[in-house]
Design goal:
Layout lengths: L8 E10 L2 E11 L3 E5 L6 H8 L7 E6 L8 H5 L2 E4 L11 H11 L4 H14 L15 H12 L6 E5 L7 H16 L3 E6 L2 H7 L2 E6 L2 E6 L1 H8 L2 E6 L5 E7 L3 H14 L4 E5 L3 H9 L6 H8 L3
Parallel strand pairs: 3-7, 3-8, 5-6, 6-7
Antiparallel strand pairs: 1-2, 1-4, 8-9, 10-11, 10-12
The protein binds adenosine-5'-diphosphate and magnesium ion (MG).
């Protein structure tokens, strides 16, 4: 079966509520193959959307197609083409890395020989060969995460869902995982990842979608999103390199020069850096709210 002529994901008017709480609200979105990041604070509805797309939970209304298939009505057909690595690692601590891989291969109906072949290859790619005979309970968080992703790749999915793949990882493991995600994408696998880290979306994704109040409020490349906010920011720092002031500008040479000449007159000794807005600043501009935990907001609004 070929899906090359179909969009990767096609959603129109998707809604999903839990009781009175509208988590997804008339959401529409079309994605072509590639790396896509869904960005939003804790409680925004990222996992809900990923779980709908990856067949785990039903939706209330609207139309949803993933690789041309309806995740609700063509569930098992779609399950053979995608993989999901959840927010919490799903590997079994009592088994070794290799055993986990083989179990997953069996689950996807691969022969033992094919499973072993794929497992060797993936474990090597994720630098887990040396640890493959050790029980997963002895692995670090970063190693578990990598094994989790390696296991989800055993059947060679066309589309991989990664729900907050780097949450809770240290900087080094996070970087290693970013490298892996890029390597996967280079092999032609499409990726749909969720993240709370604006920086992560910026580094990884060709396209970034911002989820806010149950809808996609912005959608584009990191650079397009930054363009929507416009301009450049002048950072003023003291002798020790600490930022003591930030001056937003629209980014034209004239405006930047004007701001700088005023600064040069008043405080000739300070250092300056001119930079594009960060995605945090973009989020604030797009939603009118700083990046906060949506669950906290909900609790604040809830009657006592
Ligand atoms: N099974 C459920 N029952 C009731 N509320 C839920 C359920 N799953 C998620 N929610 C609520 O839906 C909102 C979105 O959750 P979620 O999709 O997990 O957000 P995110 O992954 O962006 O942190 C949250 O307020 C959460 O509490
Ligand atoms: Mg989540």
């Amino acid at each position: 079966m070929r899906y090359a002529d179909k969009p990767l994901v096609e959603i129109s008017g998707l809604s999903k509520s839990y009781g009175k709480h509208h988590v997804l609200n008339d959401l529409s979105l079309t994605l072509d193959p590639g790396i896509h990041a869904l960005l939003g604070p804790n409680g925004a509805g990222k996992t809900t959307l990923v779980n709908i797309l990856s067949t785990l939970i039903p939706y209330d209304s609207g139309s949803v197609r993933v690789l041309g298939l309806d995740p609700q009505r063509q569930r098992s057909q779609l399950q053979g083409l995608i993989s999901l690595t959840g927010q919490y690692a799903a590997v079994d601590g009592a088994l070794t890395g290799m055993e986990n891989m083989l179990m997953m291969g069996q689950l996807f109906g691969l022969s033992r020989r094919d499973s072993k072949h794929r497992a060797d290859d993936l474990l090597e790619r994720f630098e887990l060969t040396a640890a493959s005979a050790k029980r997963v309970a002895t692995y670090s968080g970063g190693m578990r995460r990598k094994l989790d992703i390696a296991a989800s790749l055993i059947a060679g999915p066309q589309l991989i869902f990664l729900d907050e793949p780097t949450t809770g990882l240290d900087t080094r493991s996070r970087q290693a995982l970013w490298d892996e995600i890029n390597a996967l994408a280079a092999l032609g696998t499409s990726i749909f990842l969720t993240t709370q880290y604006l920086e992560e979306a910026d580094v990884l994704a060709e396209r970034i979608m911002v989820l806010h109040d149950g809808r996609i409020v912005a959608d584009g490349t990191a650079s397009q999103l930054k363009d929507r906010v416009g301009g450049s920011t002048i950072q003023v720092h003291d002798g020790a390199g600490h930022i003591i002031e930030t001056l937003p500008t629209q980014g034209s040479a004239q405006e930047v020069a004007h701001a700088l000449s005023a600064l040069a007159r008043q405080r000739p000794d300070v250092g300056i850096t001119v930079r594009r807005p960060t995605l945090d600043e973009v989020f604030l501009e797009l939603t009118g709210e700083p990046v906060t935990d949506q669950n906290d907001k909900q609790k604040e609004n809830a009657p006592a």
